[in-house]
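User: Assemble these into one structure.

Assistant: Restating your components, then the assembled model:
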Amino acid sequence: MKKINGYVEELFKNIPESEQKNAVMQEVTQNLEEKVWDLMGEGKTEEDAINKAIVDFGDIEDLKQELGVSQPKKRNTSKLNLWYSIWGSLLIISLFVFINFYYSPEIIWFVYPTFAVLWWPLTMYFSWKRTK
Amino acid sequence: MIRSDIIRGHLESIILRLVCEEDRYGYEISKEISARTDNRFQIKEATLYAVFQRLEKKDLIDSYFGNVSQGGKRKYYRITTLGKAYLKETVEEWKETKAIIDLFMEGLD
């Protein structure tokens, strides 16, 4: 039955260590061994039985996915980005307003940079909408 | 042997049904599936364990170690209350699906 152990080790070698992985490996080994005993009971030689059990086992990709480290979900930061853009643009706009009225109150020009700056929260608003 | 994706989508229900009848362990389930389908469908063990993991994660089954057999302790699975409810729902869903697909698949030959 050493061959079974070796096979299972080989199968699972790329999966990160975890309690869950060890439990599944144990389970798989146990079940494979039982299958081998069964097949031998049907008259197969040990080698044939082991080979058949291994061939029948199939592709482990699915299982890998279940056992793989669950990828931390990428946090959706678009709402945060939106708030950042709103506060950021408010600060910039108030800076313009201040400069405008402090140094050149006779001409109202702060509107122009304000429009430019507003593209920022506008973009963020729609990128937030898109993720909803 | 069928290896269709259609069955794949129902493996969870198939396994739930089998552990609903009685507590079973992995190899027993794969044998039972082959036996009941007259070997027309055989589940790959690798797939089986993946489904166990999924079902356990969803709390539809849980497991315990049973008696020692050749090789080691068998890991048995049993259905949870949630699992039973889920199974019942999937049965209803399947009936509905089957009726719809039958509308288009029947009466051609």
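Chain A is about 75% helix and 0% strand.
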